Amino acid sequence: SLRAMASPPLEEHVFLVESFELIQQFGKQFQDKLCGADMCVEQEHGCQHSCVSTPGSFYCECNPGYKLNVDGKTCSPIDACADGRHGCQHQCVSTRGSYLCRCRAGYYLNQDKRSCTMIDYCSFGNHSCQHECVSIPNGHYCRCRSGFTLQPDSRSCRATDLCNGVDHGCEFKCVSTEGSYRCVCPEGQQLQADGKACSKCGAGHVDLVMVIDGSKSVRPQNFELVKQFVNRIVDLLEVSPHGTQVGLVQYSSRVRTEFPL
């Protein structure tokens, strides 16, 4: 009960004696404590912040946000971030006796004062991207939709030249379109149903000689396929003395001209 009522430090304010006779020994000590001078005033206490007088002695105290060093006189700021319990998502900044959370560049602090959210620079409406805007920390970049390529200005988009990037199979010429491509034929010819081959060469002037393998190793069924291929090619041509002329050479153990141009 005495310790509960006494002022700290208890070792200077609470005493236990074994008999009434021993009480006399503490008389002078009690007088010093009850009637003693203000030690913080009477002597050079050396406290960095504040001095607290006690009967016959004193002790040093630090201002809020500081802790007393082991020398009992000087004070050091309390680093509230050092214990790792601050909960800041990005950065913790110590203040006097407390701390505050701070976000990295390109982020803003949420209402919980701990977590961070990336700034959506695309929402400002001045990104000028032709297709899509993508936010990143400290800025944004423009992105094109599938089938388009970003131009050197980093904002506008141009249809990707798929003719150079795919095996288009166009017989004559490939032309890139928005996100795709199409085959075209020379003037005077029409694109066939497969979208790749061209119609008769009505205005063409070509000397075409076909050389085919007629040896036994080709086998009859394969030779029939070769003949069908030759027929299909010739059917596309307008054969005439002043237009396309066709010749055929067959070889096996010897070479034979089947018909000249």
From TrEMBL:
Keyword S-adenosyl-L-methionine part of the UniProt annotation: no
Protein name: MATN4 protein
UniProt subcellular location: Secreted
Taxonomic lineage: Eukaryota, Metazoa, Chordata, Craniata, Vertebrata
Domain called VWFA: residue spans: 207-261
Cellular component terms per the entry's GO annotation: extracellular region
Gene responsible for this protein: Matn4
InterPro entries according to UniProt: EGF, EGF-like_Ca-bd_dom, Growth_fac_rcpt_cys_sf, NOTCH1_EGF-like, VWF_A, vWF_C/EGF_Fibrillin, vWFA_dom_sf
Signal peptide (UniProt feature, chain positions): none
Keywords in alphabetical order: Disulfide bond, EGF-like domain, Glycoprotein, Secreted, Signal
GO MF terms held by the record: calcium ion binding
Organism: Anhinga anhinga
